[in-house]
Amino acid sequence: MIKTDILIIGAGPTGLFTVFEAGLLKLKTHLIDALPQPGGQCSEIYPKKPIYDIPGFPEVLAGDLVDNLMEQIKPFEPGFTLGERADTIEKLEDDTFVVTTNKGTKHNAPVVAIAGGLGSFEPRKPPIPNIVNFEDKGVAYIIRDPEVYRDKRVVIAGGGDSALDWSIFLADVASEVTLVHRRNEFRGALDSVEKVAELSKLGKINLITEAEVKELHGDDHLTSIGIKHKTKGDIVQDTDYFIPLFGLSPKLGPIGDWGLEIEKNAIKVDNSYDYQTNIPGIYAIGDVNTYRGKLKLILSGFHEATLMCQSAYQRIHPDKKYVMKYTTVGGVEGFDGTKKEAKKEVVKSIV
Fold this sequence. Notes:
Layout: E1 2-3, E2 6-9, H1 13-24, E3 29-33, H2 41-44, E4 50-51, E5 60-61, H3 62-73, E6 79-82, E7 86-91, E8 97-101, E9 106-109, E10 111-114, E11 120-123, E12 153-157, H4 161-170, E13 176-181, H5 190-201, E14 206-209, E15 211-218, E16 222-229, E17 233-238, E18 241-244, E19 248-251, E20 262-263, E21 266-268, E22 282-284, E23 289-290, H6 298-316, E24 324-325, E25 349-350
Parallel strand pairs: 1-9, 2-3, 2-10, 3-6, 10-22, 12-13, 12-18, 13-14, 21-23
Antiparallel strand pairs: 4-5, 7-8, 8-9, 11-19, 15-16, 16-17, 20-21, 24-25
Helix pairs in contact: 1-3, 1-6, 4-5
């Protein structure tokens, strides 16, 4: 049985940053993830997608963010159980938990932090009769490598952040980018909406609103699409790729049967202090949780992970008072006591 201080379910950005915050508190961590590599959606779905809201990084690719997080947590030597799904949980008499994966691997810890993002998921597909026939033949629901679309004609459908961001990004990659949305208004960030509008004026994005893609045409590969426009009627447009970005259908999976309080497929937590669930010792951080005012942003997950680790320390060491120090004081220590280089500054502590 694998023993640790904090067992983290999910190795996405929030789960990885939890390792860092726990490490500062000299707490050991182990991560479980159903994917074969760390990084969650950032690695599996959109490693080449630019992210704009990470403090200190005007723009960073999702895959690069994961690489940086892995480098950041290296001194703390976390354990990983990858390619296995957390299936069951049991509370022992000593107030610790045993989590067993679908492959029978058992993990024991006094604290469990669920950082499973959206859980298991699959893309929402538009109701186009023959769309399955063109999957991997011109139809894609996820953009993993934008270079696939270099000098190609691309049609993107959707009105959220992913559709807007990828339209902006591919405007400098593809030979032609068309964005189709069934409304005039978009759900994405205002800045992205304005960028798409500006690129449309410059002729770098063909923006078609009040319209939907209804037909796909081609033999061995997609060659054209049929668009139903509200006022202009039927439009046929030649294209090499059609990418509907309508989001993901998330499912909590087995975690939904752990006795946790669930609301709209997310885990309810106490955000007044530490993001603990209705079961003491089990926390939920990142996109997997919900509370009043919740924002599903990576930086929100980082904040939640920080406060959660402070609470976890008190649960694990109820008789100790932790003195918090700035990480620039003396450097960051690994479990072996090895210090990384850092500036020698005056110690400022919070008791």
